[in-house]
Amino acid sequence: MATAASYPTDVKTLHFMLDEQRQLIESLKANLHRLLKWQFGPKSEHINVDQLGLFVDGSLVIEVPESAPADHAERSNTSPATSDWRRAVRVLRNLPRVIEEIDVPEAQKSCPCCGEALSAFGHESSEQLQYIPARLEVHETRRRKYSCGHCHGAVVRAPLPCLPPIPKSMASASLLSYLIVSKFADGLPLYRIAGRLRRLGIELSHTLMSEWLMQCYPLLEDLHRRMMRKVLDSGHIYTDDTTLPLQNDDPARRSTVEAKLWVYAKDHRHGPPLIVYDFSRSRTRDAPLTVLADYRGYLQADAYPGYDPLFVTGKIIEVACNVHARRKFVEAADLLEKPGRPHEALAFYRELFGIERKIKDWSDEGRLRERQEKTVPLLAQFKAWLDHAVHTVLPKDTFGIAVNYALKHWEALTNFTKAGHLDASNNYAERCMRPVAVGRKAFLFVGSERAGHAAAIYYSLVESCKANKVNPLTYLTYVLANARNKSIMLPTPEEFTASNVAHVG
Fold it and tell me: Domain of 496?
């Protein structure tokens, strides 16, 4: 431990040491605050910037238009009775309808006043949703055999109608689809699925169900490759990654391996959406560099340095996420007891995302025009504010980190204004990771790299079905029932139509 005698006597040196200590203390306080908020605080990033004494420190002020409150007022005046999404019950599909008619007893079909016969003039109706429980059936296939009773030299057997997904197994395509959907769409661990099946009349071990899933995924690898090719040909990809712990296969290591699941998705703006996942043992840049090696177009991603080699040639254009940039200003604002400069940045982001909400459902041409007229001038104001603020902050301060992050990635953060189909954030890719996070809480880790690749394929099919409003159970039943039929080209989820459904049964 240093003593007073060992301290330098030069005043400038002492000032420098004091600044360093102050920055370290502020950094540690900020880290402690983030940790406590992450563990105990609300997860919402909402910050109130509608306060009069906001821009009072003499820094450059961003004068944002007042369109956001007007939009909010317009939304608040919407009648709940006219908004379908406010309804408590919505019939999402054309469900089968059973009509039960109740007639008046014959004795009551005459008028109590004059005795004449009453005439029917209509009916009163009410609707109830009936739940029909699932059930299991054993389908036994008996193939007739014929032999020659004269010479006994020939035996003829009836052909199989179709090859099962797993040869010599009791698992049908529909049961396998149920296992896939329950685990990868509903996030249920195998022991809960086993409990459901037990109530329906069968006992299945976890090991057997896991083995069935591992035997199924090679049948779907070609579908997965075709889906990835379609995403790479789209010219606009959202990408992100999340942790998918891998069971440790190293005796010298006590914890699981931090493997990664990557998503590559295209949205609905140019054709049907597709969501494709890829598994890698680590978060090295080899995984995205391999997948995106021949890709050309826009790539919406976070600021992960592993993507940087992709942008060197200019064939791939980086579109960064403004939500990530905004989040850093939220962290800086949370440390303040009263409004300060971080709130000025948040006022800008409120206006920016207000414009994005307004043009969400517009055409690409309309979105581009609105951005050029309103968003680009707003970005220019904010850039001037950042250039001024960067000279007045400490680099390692929480607010300084937010300012420097925005300036470092400014070009990528503003590239979304160059085309109408681009987004200001990468939220679409992050939403694609939610099912993985839900499943990760249920089954904790994958058992091997093969299991990781299988999970990537199953997530790809299930989430793409959901994005295209296709029932994943119906789709997977059809695909697995025909997976060994070489005469059929299996449809990807967005190609699956009602004509395919007729062949499922």
Answer: 146-320+426-505
The secondary structure of 408-434 as a DSSP string is HTHHHHHGGGG-TT--SS-HHHHHHTH
Element (H, E) at 44: none
**307-to-240, 253, 290 alpha-carbon distances in Å:** 11, 29, 11
The first and second tokens of residue 178, run together, are 């149920």
Q: Are residues 170 and 283 in the same domain?
A: yes
Express the helix, strand and coil content of the chain in percent, nearest 5 each: 50, 10, 40
pLDDT at 162: 79
Q: Is the dihedral of CA 109, 112, 115, 120 positive or negative?
A: negative
Going by their DSSP bridges, the two strands 260-266 and 274-280 should be labelled as antiparallel
Of 425, 458, 475, which residue constitutes the final position of a domain? Answer: 425
Task: Quick: pLDDT tens for 198-221.
Answer: 998 899 998 999 999 999 999 999
> Which residues 6+ apart lie within 8 Å of 52 measured at CB?
none
Neighbours of 44 (CB within 10 A): 7
DSSP conformational letter for 503: T
Phi, psi of 263 (to 5 degrees): -120, 140
Q: In angstroms, rounded to a whole number, what is the distance separating the alpha carbons of residues 163 and 321?
A: 47
Looking at residue 80, the DSSP 8-state letter turns out to be G
Count CB-CB contacts under 10 A for residue 422: 19
Are the CB atoms for 165 and 484 separated by under 8 Å?
Answer: yes
Same domain membership, residue 458 and residue 416? no
pLDDT tens column, 228-270: 999 999 999 999 999 998 888 777 777 888 899 999 999 998 8
Determine if the pTM surpasses 0.70. Answer: yes
Q: What is the DSSP string of 158-216?
A: PPPSS--SSTT-S--HHHHHHHHIIIIIS---HHHHHHHHHHHT----HHHHHHHHHHH
- Other CB atoms within 10 Å distance of the CB of residue 426: 21
**Residue 264: which H helix or E strand, with range?**
strand 260-266
